[in-house]
Every structure is written in C-alpha cells, then in structure tokens.
Design brief:
By secondary structure, this protein is an alpha/beta fold. Helix 7 packs across helix 12 and helix 8 packs across helix 9. The two termini are 36 Å apart.
C-alpha cells in the first residue's frame, strides 16, 4: 500500500538514491510526493531528470515533508537544522500516529544529538551498508523517542527494499557499522590482494580479478546457504599437507586473523569517537 506522506530527501547522494529508487519503483512512494534537495543546480537538474522527482537546491521544501531522509555529510548537520526547525514550525499539525519523522543515515551522529537538533520530529538512526546499492545490504535501526509502531513498520519497509533489516540497541550500532559498513572495504582489500597474488602466479589481471570476486561471492553463498561456521568451511577445503594448508600457514604467520579483528575494533572505536 503506498505511503500517504510526502517524502523529503536532504542530500540526494549515492546511498539516498539507492534507498529512494526501490520506493519509487515499487510504488510505495509516489514521485509526486518526493521533495529532494542537493547542493548545486547542476546536480538538481541532472537528478530531477534521472529520477523523475522534484529536486532543488533549497532544502526548505524537503524539510516540509512529513517523512525526511537525512543523508548529508555529518559536518553539515548544524547548517541544515535551522531550516528544518523553521519548516516544521510552518507545517500543519500531524494526525495521531503520523508524527513528523526524521530518518538519519549519518555515520556517528547519535539519537540524542538528532533529537536535540530536530525537536518536534521522531528520530530514527539507520546504518545501511554499501551493498544496499545492489539491494543486498544490511541495515541496523535504532529508534528514538516517540517513534510509533506505524512509523516503525514504514521504516522497516523502506530499508527492506535494499536488504536485511535488524533492530538494535543504539550502543550496538558502532560494532554493527564496523563490521557491515567498514567490512566491505576490508573484504575489497582481501579480494584485491588475492587477485594480485594470482597475477604474480601467472594469471591475467582481468581474469584474476573476476575469479577473486566470484570466489568471495560463492564462499559467502555457501556459508549462508548451508549455515556453516567459517571454521567448518575452512576445514572442508583444507586437506593434509595440501595447497590450502600451505596458504593458511602463511596467513597465520602474517597475522591476518589478528589484523582483521583489530580493524573491526578500530572502526568501532572511531565510530564511538565521532559520536
């Protein structure tokens, strides 16, 4: 069933477009209901033509919507807050259960700060990851004060369009972000390194890159499809004194396991510092 709300998007970058397009394609949000804002006139014209929705450099219209997706850079949040407050003051009172809603995808900006900067709006903090761009994402959600069940169902529905949705206590969003949002970069480095190794061993680079990507995708599908513990899969592949055992020995010697653990911990700690 289509949403009856107007839908504002403040900062129509790559992630916001990835979230908006499935809503438009599925009919959950009508194109005529969208109010989007970007930084430049050139971007506004290009995105309006590409998406078929109104796009402006003035954010006041986007903030006048009853549901707003906030996707600017975290350092821009103070600048947009005053526009948001003025737009809400000029808006009509919302009916019960349809409270003005702010959905923030800003990394490291906690609910307490969102609620202080955007009074009068129920706030949701969302952490989607980059695979949402191909509708294979993971999104962690934490609810602010005053987010009713109707609104919660709508937010779940929004992010379900681009992957799996998990509801978490806000303190768990930092390790969630470290694993799922920073994790694709860590895995990309692993894939790049494996491809480099195959090139060094004699494969052409395009083929090595393709095989590394397919190997990672197939391994993930096997782990998830058969609900295997990673250690089980490692043991399935490793035969005594074989090629895999030799490679694993080098990875352990180089400290790959510890390095990846420390990378996730460092990303989580940095998320806490940003907050």
């Amino acid at each position: 069933m289509p949403w009856s709300d107007t839908f504002g998007v403040v900062g129509l970058g790559r992630m916001a477009r990835a979230l908006l397009l499935p809503l438009l394609d599925s009919g959950l949000v009508a194109r005529s209901a969208v109010r989007a804002s970007v930084a430049t006139e050139a971007s506004a014209r290009r995105l309006a033509e590409e998406l078929g929705v109104p796009v402006s450099t003035e954010s006041a219209q986007a903030w006048s919507a009853s549901v707003v997706l906030l996707a600017v850079k975290p350092q821009q949040i103070e600048a947009v807050a005053s526009v948001a407050t003025a737009a809400l003051a000029a808006a009509e009172a919302a009916p019960p259960g349809r409270e003005p809603l702010l959905i923030s995808v800003l990394a490291g900006v906690p609910l307490r700060r969102l609620q202080a900067l955007f009074p009068g709006r129920a706030c949701v903090r969302a952490v989607p990851n980059t695979p949402a761009l191909v509708r294979a994402g993971l999104t962690g959600l934490s609810w602010g004060e005053g987010v009713g069940e109707v609104r919660r169902a709508e937010v779940r529905q929004l992010f379900a369009q681009v992957g799996e949705v998990l509801e978490l206590p806000e303190p768990q969003l930092d390790p969630f972000l470290a694993l799922t949002s920073s994790g694709p970069a860590f895995l990309a480095l692993v894939a790049e390194s494996m491809a480099d190794g195959a090139v060094a061993a004699g494969l052409p680079r395009p083929l090595a890159r393709h095989l590394a990507h397919r190997t990672m995708a197939g391994t993930a599908a096997l782990l998830q499809g058969q609900e295997l513990h990673p250690g089980e899969l490692k043991d399935m592949v490793t035969s005594p004194a074989g090629t895999t055992a030799a490679g694993l020995r080098e990875l352990e010697r180089a400290g790959l396991r510890s390095a990846l653990i420390e990378a996730v911990l460092a990303a989580a700690e940095r998320s806490r510092q940003l907050a």
